[in-house]
Specification:
The protein is mainly α. It is built from 3 helices and no strands. It is 36% helix and 0% strand.
Length: 97
């Protein structure tokens, strides 16, 4: 899958570090974007968008969560790690749909 040749050239018109900002931009323009379905479904604009599965294979993206051993038992850190894992699992389950 590393060398997928779709015979198309991407023309990136806009970049942002915020998924919500990209969704808002897509809603206000004629631009399109490629984004995980789970991310789109968490935005307040999800009902204003048309989205569908890509018509070509994509690579899986791995993510890692690390923390300092001294914070292992902090309740606030445990809560945050649990919340992150919950959302990552939800995003992973939406990839299959």
């Amino acid at each position: 899958m590393d060398n997928i040749d779709l015979k198309y050239e991407r023309k990136v018109r806009y970049k942002s570090g915020s998924a919500l900002n990209i969704v808002e931009t897509v809603c206000a323009t004629d631009l399109i974007c490629v984004m995980a379905k789970g991310v789109i479904e968490t935005t307040y604009l999800k009902d204003d968008l048309l989205y569908f599965k890509l018509p070509f294979p994509t690579q899986t993206i791995s993510g890692f969560m690390t923390w300092h051993w001294a914070t292992e038992h902090y309740q606030s850190h445990r809560w945050l790690r649990k919340l992150i894992m919950k959302h990552c699992q939800r995003f992973n389950s939406t990839r299959e749909n």
